[in-house]
Amino acid sequence: DCIKANAKSCGECIQAGPNCGWCKKTDFLQEGEPTSARCDDLAALKSKGCPVEDIENPRGSKQVLEDREVTNRKIGAAEKLKPEAITQIQPQKLVLKLRVGEPQTFSLKFKRAEDYPIDLYYLMDLSYSMKDDLENVKSLGTALMLEMEKITSDFRIGFGSFVEKTVMPYISTTPAKLRNPCTGDQNCTSPFSYKNVLSLTSEGNKFNELVGKQHISGNLDSPEGGFDAIMQVAVCGEQIGWRNVTRLLVFSTDAGFHFAGDGKLGGIVLPNDGKCHLENNVYTMSHYYDYPSIAHLVQKLSENNIQTIFAVTEEFQAVYKELKNLIPKSAVGTLSSNSSNVIQLIIDAYNSLSSEVILENSKLPKGVIISYKSFCKNGVNDTQEDGRKCSNISIGDEVKFEISVTANECPKKGQNETIKIKPLGFTEEVEINLQFICECQCQSEGEPNSPACHEGNGTFECGACRCNEGRIGRLCECSTDEVNSEDMDAYCRRENSTEICSNNGECICGQCVCKKRENTNEVYSGKYCECDNFNCDRSNGLICGGNGICKCRVCECFPNFTGSACDCSLDTFPCMASNGQICNGRGTCECGTCNCTDPKFQGPTCEMCQTCLGVCAEHKDCVQCRAFDKGEKKETCSQECMHFNMTRVESRDKLPQPGQPDPLSHCKEKDVDDCWFYFTYSVNSNGEANVHVVETPECPSGPDIIPIVAGVVAGIVLIGLALLLIWKLLMIIHDRREFAKFEKEKMNAKWDTVSQEAFICIKATVV
């Protein structure tokens, strides 16, 4: 990202990303590299040889300017604080220095203060259908005062009423109906749009007195003009008497509402201007401005920190619940048919609204984003949109938010900006001054019209020239009129070549500026852009085998590597044989591989020999003749077997064990008498062979005749007994079968005799 930004100055570089730095070292660039090559990833700049102290890399920061602790106090405390002296949000003011792409994070603490002042304005629909409700509201002041004393010791209440716009078709404009819009003998007051009956006061009796003098009015259509009234209550703060405390607006009606566009029915087309138009506490422009839109109301209610409670009858619950979803920090309560439950409704709605805190921020400058993370009660954490709020907060509970502010671009003029964050429905806010880091420190230290920039044709800053208008080149040495001159192109050709900048760059002001490739790791360089770092020999698919650096199409290998592609390792460890010798002493180690010089030996370390005897078999006869004076070489022992030093030991335990410096072979061989003898063979660093042999062979003892004969005789006897037992068993089985056969034949003969006698008796009886 840093290279692709093609930054011409340090300021442009640091705006390319949070990890981009600018090298201000004067001689940092290689020949042919553009000024933008000074901008790169921090690690890349260090690897290219830019000292840390020469890298411009300003970082963002935060500074808290105002940090009053949140207020801790109890209801009924002797100390009475002014509303502006109570703190529920911390900190109150801070400065964030933002660098593009680098978030700055701070913590915000919110704590619901106990005994916090409340202003409540009761806005009531006085159309004819609310006649019975008015009777119950007349005593609301003192009753509500008593209930609210349980929550706060500083409570004020006000009252306003509304009916409808005073034009057709909303009301009848006949003179008689304007005097009394009700039918029959009902005495009703003239219709009006909105009237501020009582500004906010702490005198409950005064509320009862003034509300008691109110009379019902009337209109023609079912929806009422309540939105006009809400707008005036929100924007006419001075007339209503709002303080910077908790502001509650109770909107009481038994009907629906008109909104923006409905004014056309009465010929009113001008959009609501969202301004205060109260004269003598009466809204005078209802016939001139349309009803406000829902979005317009949301904006004004939010700007003025007003929380709305809709006290509506059961019939219109569904409509106002949908409206509640569009208006933050609002609640809906079910009003009984005569408003007898209004006090409990207000208390419940207030508890519901005050148990949730929702953060909102003012409009953000272009390119600035903000994110929230909440840390609520009982370990509940959330992010994104849900990170703005915490629910189920009781009085005295403390919650925290983690807020991150990120700038994705610098303002065009680089000026500071201010944003504000506040909890919805509260007047307190956090003011954040945003200061954007769009330039480097070294730019303020620049030298205008510097001699280093070709006779003062530019400002020398951050190690490079920033050319004056009409000048170009790394040192501002050319004017824009000279750029396409053929004479300049001649300086960009190599000898005997027609290619400008080797076809790898542009000739600017008689100097080659090498072009960039899609892969930002691949770079052209050189006076004529004739060099690059990606056209070197490869090994295993890697440039320079991954064991070197490609410079101007030639590999510069790392230590212990050589070759055109750095694919030849000088490390001899892979060639080390098991006996500790390189290639087993039978070859040479070339590029980490053994080249066996003895044709009989092969394998990775020249240790495999298909036609060779092993060490033990090779030296068996010599060890036998020297240690025991026997064997095939007994007669020639002194001539053929004196090439090693021999040491006798008492037992196998005394033989040298593995782990000594010299390669060692343990041997077990048979001599001419079929006895086993044990020895070791090793070669020390001086090439001397050493043999250690156990002085006493292990010969097998002869067989013991008596046990063998006794065993054979016992075996014959046992086999004979077994055969006799088998024969006896077979005879018993045979005899039993014969006896059973005899018994069966005997029974058959007896049956024949009885049958014959019975036949003679039957015959005699018949005769």
Automatic annotation (TrEMBL):
- The name of this protein is Integrin beta
Q: What pairs make up the disulfide bonds?
A: C10-C20, C13-C50, C23-C39, C182-C188, C236-C276, C410-C667, C438-C442, C453-C465, C462-C501, C467-C476, C478-C492, C507-C512, C509-C544, C514-C529, C531-C536, C550-C555, C552-C583, C557-C566, C568-C575, C589-C594, C591-C637, C596-C606, C609-C612, C616-C625, C622-C699, C641-C675
Report the SMART domains cross-referenced here: INB, Integrin_b_cyt, Integrin_B_tail, PSI
Record's Gene3D superfamilies? 4.10.1240.30, Cytochrome c1, transmembrane anchor, C-terminal (1.20.5.100), Laminin (2.10.25.10), ligand-binding face of the semaphorins, domain 2 (3.30.1680.10), ntegrin, alpha v. Chain A, domain 3 (2.60.40.1510), von Willebrand factor, type A domain (3.40.50.410)
Location comes to: Cell membrane; Cell projection, Invadopodium membrane; Cell projection, Lamellipodium; Cell projection, Ruffle membrane
Quote the SUPFAM superfamilies the UniProt record gives. EGF/Laminin (SSF57196), Integrin beta tail domain (SSF69687), Integrin domains (SSF69179), Plexin repeat (SSF103575), vWA-like (SSF53300)
Where are the membrane-spanning stretches? 705-727
What GO terms are given for molecular function? Answer: C-X3-C chemokine binding; collagen binding involved in cell-matrix adhesion; fibronectin binding; integrin binding; laminin binding; metal ion binding; protein kinase binding
Tell me the ranges covered by the Integrin beta subunit tail domain, including all copies.
616-704
> What InterPro entries does UniProt report for this protein, alphabetically?
EGF_extracell, EGF_integrin_1, EGF_integrin_2, Integrin_beta_N, Integrin_bsu, Integrin_bsu_cyt_dom, Integrin_bsu_tail, Integrin_bsu_tail_dom_sf
Q: Which residues form the Integrin beta subunit VWA domain?
A: 9-440
Keyword annotations of the record: Calcium, Cell adhesion, Cell junction, Cell membrane, Cell projection, Disulfide bond, EGF-like domain, Glycoprotein, Integrin, Magnesium, Membrane, Metal-binding, Myogenesis, Phosphoprotein, Receptor, Repeat, Signal, Transmembrane, Transmembrane helix
Where the record annotates domain Integrin beta subunit cytoplasmic, the positions are: 728-762
Lineage, top-rank taxon, reads Eukaryota
Q: Which GO terms describe its biological process?
A: cell adhesion mediated by integrin; cell migration; cell-cell adhesion; integrin-mediated signaling pathway; muscle organ development
Residue ranges of domain PSI in the record: 1-51
Q: Which Pfam families match?
A: EGF_2 (PF07974), EGF_integrin (PF23105), I-EGF_1 (PF18372), Integrin_b_cyt (PF08725), Integrin_B_tail (PF07965), Integrin_beta (PF00362), PSI_integrin (PF17205)
**How the protein sits in the membrane?**
Single-pass type I membrane protein
Record flagged with keyword Calcium: yes
Q: Which family does it belong to?
A: Belongs to the integrin beta chain family.
